[in-house]
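Example 5.3 — LytTR family DNA-binding domain-containing protein
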Amino acid sequence: MLRAIIIEDEASSRETLRNYLSQYCADVSLLAEAGNIQDGKTAIEIHNPDIVFLDVEMPFGNGFDLLESLDEINFEIIFVTAFSHYAIRAIQFSASNYILKPIDIDELVAAVDKVKNGSQDNHSATKILLENLRNTQLQATKIVLPVLEGLEIIQAQDIIHCEANDNFTRFHLHNGKPLMICRTLKYYEKMLEPLGFMRTHKSHLINLEKIRKYVKGKGGYVIMSNDAELAVSPNKKAMLLEKLAV
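Solution (predicted C-alpha cells):
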C-alpha cells in the first residue's frame, strides 16, 4: 500500500483528487492533505509518505520551493499542474511523473502505476529537476531519458541530432553511442527547441550548434559534427538559413 499526501491549494482540486484516488487507486492510502507549502512540509515530516501529489503553482511559492526546502527527498512525487510551458518543460526534462489539470483518471492511474511498479528512479529525476531549475544556462540543462535499464542522464549540449523512428526517437550523442527512446520526435521537438534545436525535416531534429556545414540544394542538407548528412525539407530551408544568419 502506497501512503500518500496531497499538497494542493485549491480545495475543489484536493476533493477531486481524493475522490479519484479512493475510487480508482486501491493501492493508495491517503494520510493527509495540505493547502500550502508550509503545511505540506509539516505533513511530509510527520507522515513520511511514500508518494506526494504536489501542485506546482501555489500561493507564496510553488512546489519546487517546497522540494528545495527539504533536507532529503525520500518519497516519490507526482506533480499536479495546470498547463504551464515553463513548469511542464522543466518536469519533462527530468522525466518526472506529472498529471495535468483537470485531472484525467487514466493519467492518474498510469502515474500511480509507474510509482507502484518502480519503473523509474524518481529520486534521481527530482534531483535533476531541481538542478535544472537553478541553472540559468540553457545549454547546460540536463535531460533524463527513460531507457530499458532505467534512466540515462545527458547534457543537452551533448546531443548532436535526434532521428524519428516510428514512435521512437534515436538520440545521436557526441560520444557516438546512440540511444533509442520510446517517445516520438514531436515530443522532444517541443522540449528541445528552446535549447537551440530545430526540426529541419520530418525525420530530423538537429542541434544548431553542431552543424559543421550546409550544402545548397532544393532543400539542401547539413553535415553535423559526427559527419552525419541530414536532409533539410524545402519548407524549412529559409528558417534554417535565417537561424544560421547566412
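Remark. The first strand starts at residue 2 and ends at 7.
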